[in-house]
Design a protein that fits this description.
Strands 3-2-1-4-5 form a five-stranded parallel sheet. Helix 6 links the parallel strand 4 and strand 5. It is an alpha/beta fold and 126 residues long. The chain has six helices and five strands. The chain has a single domain, classed as Rossmann fold.
């Protein structure tokens, strides 16, 4: 399965949220699970982790990088409800991701509607 993780999932996991931490741990253990990022997404993860979970930032980012494949974003993706979320949609489209995992209600609702992507909360991932 191909995944894209919104920054809110990565930071929440680093801060100890059990559901999000478990999801990332399962991705790490599953050889069939692929995590996709772009350079911009990695930069956002890094900045958010350093601000919100500074003690865990370096180690957690290393875990993400060890599992992630870096792709070029799909060109021309716009997401007017929240332009900062366009990078996750562009990554998912480029990678042919099966799911974008987020807790962002707008990204979930509007991303599904406009891009026909599967966008789920961590609790919805089997």
């Amino acid at each position: 399965m191909k995944f894209v993780l919104d920054t809110n999932i990565v930071v929440s996991a680093a801060l100890g949220n059990a559901e999000d931490f478990d999801l990332i741990a399962r991705l790490e253990r599953d050889p069939a699970a692929m995590l996709y990022v772009t350079a911009d997404i990695l930069d956002e993860y890094d900045g958010a982790l350093r601000r919100k979970a500074p003690r865990a930032a370096e180690a957690f980012l290393a875990r993400i990088k060890a599992k992630a494949a870096i792709v070029e974003p799909a060109p021309g993706v716009e997401f007017p409800p929240d332009p900062t979320d366009a990078k996750f949609i562009a990554c998912a489209l480029s990678a042919g991701a099966d799911v974008v995992v987020t807790k962002d209600k707008t990204l979930k609702r509007e991303g599904r509607r406009h891009f026909r992507l599967t966008i789920s909360r961590p609790s919805e991932i089997g």
